[in-house]
Amino acid sequence: MALELTLTIIKPDAFSAGHAGDIIKIFEANQFKIVAARLVNLTRSEAEGFYAIHRGKPFFESLTAFMSSAPALVMVLEGENVIARLRETMGATDPARAAAGTIRKLYAQDIERNAIHGSDAPETAAFEISYFFPGIELLASARAKQL
Ligand code: ATP
Ligand code: MG
Q: Is the domain defined by 3-41+72-146 classed in CATH 3.10.590.10?
């Protein structure tokens, strides 16, 4: 098991609906430790940069409009295998296909307004963390060595 970092976003739909506290409770119940947090109101171009991998897809315009429509809560989570474990806790992209008890089953409205983002691999986690927290050295093992 590896101690990892991942980036999560409580998306504008869930944040506006007042589900941030419920979602953070789920993080805490799963031992996902919050090591950084920012409330952001993304510009369209920041949303486009974050989701650049999806540029050209049919949902790109609508997705980036949604992500820049209202405040969102961005966090870095730390934990054992947290990248995969967060994805399991989130559930499928489409809430209609998400397992019972997952964050998207509980709080998502539809396949686009689906409550939460989570990095899907170590490489994307590294890019996404640096996108919102540039220059921050966050890994616990690195911090511990400095104590
Ligand atoms: P995320 O990257 O936000 O954690 P994901 O990895 O489950 O979600 P992706 O395929 O990376 O899903 O899509 C990114 C986001 O784009 C989705 O979370 C959703 O908001 C939106 N999206 C994906 N597919 C569709 C679709 N078919 N129609 C509308 N929106 C979509
Ligand atoms: Mg994704």
A: no
Which ligand is located closest to the Cα atom of residue 114?
1
**Beta carbons within 8 Å of 86's beta carbon, 6+ residues apart:** 6, 8, 30, 32, 77, 118, 119
Domain boundaries, the chain: 3-41+72-146
Q: pLDDT for 7-29, tens place per residue?
A: 999 999 999 999 999 999 999 99
Q: Whose CA is nearest to atom 19 of ligand 1?
A: 112
91 with 103: CB under 8 angstroms? yes
pLDDT tens-place string over residues 60-108: 999 999 999 999 999 999 999 999 999 999 999 999 999 999 999 999 9
For a substitution probing ligand 1, which of 55, 59, 93 has the most ligand atoms within 8 Å of its CB?
93
Res. 2 pLDDT band, cuts 50 70 90? confident
